[in-house]
Amino acid sequence: MHLTLSAAAHRLSAASEPQGGFAGWAAGLVETFGGPGAGAAIALENVFLPLPSEVILPLTGFAASQGVLSIASALFWTTLGSVVGAVVLYGVGAVFGRERMHAWWAKLPLVKASDLVRTEAWFARHGTKAVLLGRMVPVFRSLISVPAGVERMPLPVFVALTAAGSLVWNTVLVMAGYLLGDQWDVVGSYVGVVSKVVLALAFVALAGYVTLRVRSRRRRKP
Q: For residue 29, how far is the Cα from the chain centroid?
């Protein structure tokens, strides 16, 4: 027999307490506002990277398993929140613009204008795949919105790709929380490992790029 809404909300809070303040805050939003609360939390997660979706989404799935909201509501509102947060970052990129990007890039050490031009050309060719698949990669799922705005990807295309990619990501994590029940927080551990691997690879790539640039400049010196 399903728990009543109030009993489910109480159990949701109790299950969230060991995770610390953030899980409790997210649980409070879901308990109080249901799907819209989960959507608001995900929208903020997209804009502020320290807020982890690997906590919010499984927690929302657990809430659905306890009758606080339906799976359909969980997926609709979290995907809408993902789109809203992504559009905010897209707007930041659009306001910053290509001219400011080039001016800022020119002031950076160890880079050349041609590097940025090549990056723009790459995004022009692969931007749709980058936005779609980037929504399923920890960390980059938020950051990819900024270059899309800088390059002025058509907003309807950006929204459609973001919604599609976010729906896949959200469905996987929400359903994991739904199926795991009280052990929903296990999802965060696995996704956290993936996030660290992604960040480590990005750091290695950046370090390699800087090393190559430094060596190239030394060779060019008389």
A: 19
Taking phi over 0 as left and psi of -120 to 50 as alpha, with beta for the rest, 108 belongs to beta
DSSP 92-126: HHHHHHHHHHHHHHHTSTT--HHHHHHHHHHHHHH
Q: Which of 40, 37, 43 is nearest to 68 (CA)?
A: 37
Q: Which two tokens stand for residue 121?
A: 């050309």
Q: Report which secondary-structure segment, H or E, holds 159.
A: helix 155-180
Residue among 118, 92, 94 nearest 105 (CA): 118
User: Crossing angle, helix 53-65 and helix 155-180, to 10 degrees?
Assistant: 60
φ and ψ at 144, to 5 degrees? -65, -20
pTM of the model: 0.73
Print pLDDT tens along the chain (222 aa): 334 334 444 555 555 444 456 667 777 778 778 889 889 989 988 887 656 777 788 888 888 888 888 999 999 999 999 999 999 989 888 888 878 876 766 676 655 666 666 767 777 788 888 888 888 877 777 778 888 888 889 999 999 999 999 999 999 889 988 888 777 766 666 556 555 665 566 556 556 545 655 566 556 655
